[in-house]
Specification:
Length: 441
């Protein structure tokens, strides 16, 4: 294995612990690859199987006391005068987010990446902090890129990305989209390259993927690579090949999730809809819907109409396995209230399989109503298969109703505030009711 190459081993309590490869996948499809002149954004968040992920909403805010500092997951940074409203899907223990969107229709998802540049263990900004900061501080995709790279230069990236004491650190890549375009931003320490995407499809996974199409970059990125002996200064500069160990000529045909995501997007190119993106996120044969010690703990799909008269619509699961989860409809409006039914209240760890099912459900219900589904997921073997099948069928019926609701909203430029203000919490309540009815019957 080359020096500083991604390792399947991570230090836990002073011992090496073999981990399954962790991965996430983020996708974007733009016209003409989509229908109805929409941009479709999608992401699976793959994390440790016992980690709670919550969906939270923070309203726009004005910050008068700029002498104060903003506390992120590990460090404090300078605050800005104004922040935008955001909806986030985040591991409950940290400040930042795996993915999310803001009131201007900007969406961001991040991925762990490794390469030749050594990962720093010193606490700095996590990639997940940078996701939230980009959303809170930028009203376009490119401005979000500016926010992230400026913060990266000033504060750096680093720190443990696991809550259970296992040492787990990485650099980050980002897919940033808005109503007009998308940007891929990939980092190696403080160095970075960015690629603009204006049409077609693009995906990122746990590898550097920007090759020779570089639209923006760190001013010293090439000189640094030359000094390290990674690039001779003569041949065409390839970011992924230079800063990692990837043979970029085989990148889209080699086994792996980046390649599988690339193939799935291109398979549906020209006809990609919200449902298509959800099918990709639910795909298990490709490994995109991940199972094991690292698994898909939450999913997000966003519809970004290019016509600004129409609202952006976001769907979240907030719980493991998108195949057996309903994806909830979220439409931002000024009357939004906190998402209490989906927010993690007291950190709940993985249940013992020896818990009686009703007891387990009661425990979850008191701590986090939506995370009730994780209990069902972990203890599904206690439910007869026929009941599990019925439960999934009922969930799909509810989801189809949400799809109809989505199209109704997208066809109506004047939103019915009374109708949508509680739409997301009601989705959570409806799904919880499905679980309770099936479990108690």
């Amino acid at each position: 294995m080359p020096l500083n190459a991604p390792s399947p081993f991570h230090i836990a309590g002073g011992q090496f612990k073999k981990m399954e490869p962790c991965s996430c996948d983020t996708f974007v499809a733009l016209p003409p690859a989509t229908v109805e002149n929409r941009i479709i954004f999608g992401k699976n968040s793959d994390r440790l199987c016992d980690e709670v992920q919550e969906v939270v909403y923070f309203p726009a805010a004005v910050h008068d006391n700029l002498r104060g500092h903003l506390k992120c997951t590990y460090i404090e940074i300078d605050q800005v005068p104004e922040t935008y409203a955001v909806v986030l899907s985040r591991p409950a223990w940290l400040w930042g987010a795996e993915m999310g969107a803001n009131e201007h229709g900007v969406c961001i998802g991040n991925e762990a990446v490794w390469g030749r540049e050594e990962v720093c263990d010193e606490e700095a900004l996590l990639g997940m902090d940078l996701v939230r900061l980009g959303l809170e501080r930028a009203d376009t995709a490119e401005k979000a890129l500016d926010v992230i790279v400026d913060l990266l230069e000033k504060y750096g990236q680093g720190g443990n990305c696991s809550e259970d004491g296992m040492a787990f650190s990485y650099h980050n890549s980002f897919l940033i989209a808005d109503r007009k375009e998308a940007w891929i931003l990939e980092t190696a320490g403080k160095y970075w390259a960015a690629e603009k995407v204006q049409e077609g499809v693009r995906n990122i996974s746990n590898q550097l993927s920007i090759t020779t199409k570089i639209d923006r970059e760190h001013p010293d990125m090439r000189n640094y690579a030359k000094q390290k002996g990674w690039w001779d200064g003569k041949k065409e500069f390839d970011f992924a090949a230079t800063y990692s160990y990837i043979d970029t000529t085989k990148m889209t045909i080699s086994p792996g999730r980046y390649c599988e995501g690339y193939k799935l997007l291109n398979k549906h190119k020209g006809n990609i809809t919200f449902e298509t993106m959800m099918e990709i996120l639910r795909d298990k044969p490709s490994g995109i819907n991940m199972e094991g010690e690292f698994l898909t703990t939450a999913s997000m799909v966003s519809i970004l109409p290019q016509d600004s008269n129409f609202p952006c619509i976001h769907f979240f699961t907030g719980t493991p396995d998108p195949e057996s989860s309903i994806i909830f409809l979220f439409v931002r409006n000024k009357h939004m209230s906190p998402l209490y039914s989906t927010q993690h209240l007291i950190c709940f760890k993985k249940l013992s399989a020896s818990f009686p099912l009703n007891t387990a459900l009661g425990v979850i219900d008191k701590k986090n109503q939506l995370y009730l589904r994780v209990c069902v997921h972990l203890l599904l073997f206690l439910i007869v298969q026929e009941k599990a099948k019925t439960m999934l069928e009922n969930m799909r019926k509810l989801e189809k109703e949400l799809f109809k609701e989505m199209e109704s909203i997208l066809q109506n430029k004047h939103l019915d505030v009374d109708k949508i203000v509680n739409l997301f919490p009601q989705c959570a309540k409806d799904e919880i009711q499905i679980y309770k009815l099936n479990i108690n019957s």
